Fold:
Amino acid sequence: MPDAAQLAALAAVHRRGSFDLAAADLYVTQSAVSQRIKALEDATGSLLIRRGQPCTATETGLRLIRHHDEIVVLDKALSHDLGLATTAATLRIAVNADSLATWVIPALAATQGFLYDLVIDDQDVSQDWLKRGDVAAAITAHPGPLQGCDTVPLGKLRFRATASPAYIARWLPDGPTAAALSRAPALRFNDKDRLQSQWAAHRGAANPPSHRLASSHGFVEACLAGLGWALNPEPLVTRHLAEGTLIDLSPAAPLDMALYWQFSRLTARATGPLTQAIKHAARQVLIADPPRT
Structure:
């Protein structure tokens, strides 16, 4: 069996991207981290870390990191069940920024016994983190199935295409026409964010010019300031729409994004309280699918 300290060093190097930062996280010397990685590579007969900037785990390394994460969570759960004193287990999960900004935090706060390591990534690719074994659970737009994982449908996060009155007067005086959208600056979270482009494409405008701004709350502030238009989560803009400081560009056609909670089946019992909290928090904000008849 791989040594626990060696596995912890492997996970730390991969996630921090360097041996010195991993050493700082583990409160050991960089030399100790290097020795642990070398011993683990010798024991497995495989290259586990690609040295570079940043350092990243190989496929075999990722499999060992997944094993490490699962054992840590299961050990902590067992200690809790036996009434033994233990430190909180670190749980690494992938979350899209809009969910984090609107409904996820209360679920995390309601669940005791974990320290959270959140990977913030687009809902269209967050499942990839789970598939690689880099996280124990993910909020994703993909329903699955994913091998070794269970999936819980959460509901739909509603988005509204919004802009300020002054922005509309300048850029969209005749509404969101194809010609206007091809010139009017939009907002984009990062290269993976396709919401604005897809919304504009449905109206005949491909690849609208875009500012890049990696913040859900920053999107709202930028729209209020007239920097651009964007699809904002409805919970973040309801008040601004009511007050008239933002205008819905298409009131009759919001964009609803289905979200799912996917988690490792092996650690499902240990993470069960978080799953229940996620489901409860989602019900407070997301739009539930109608019951099947």
Q: What stands out?
A: The longest helix spans residues 59-81.
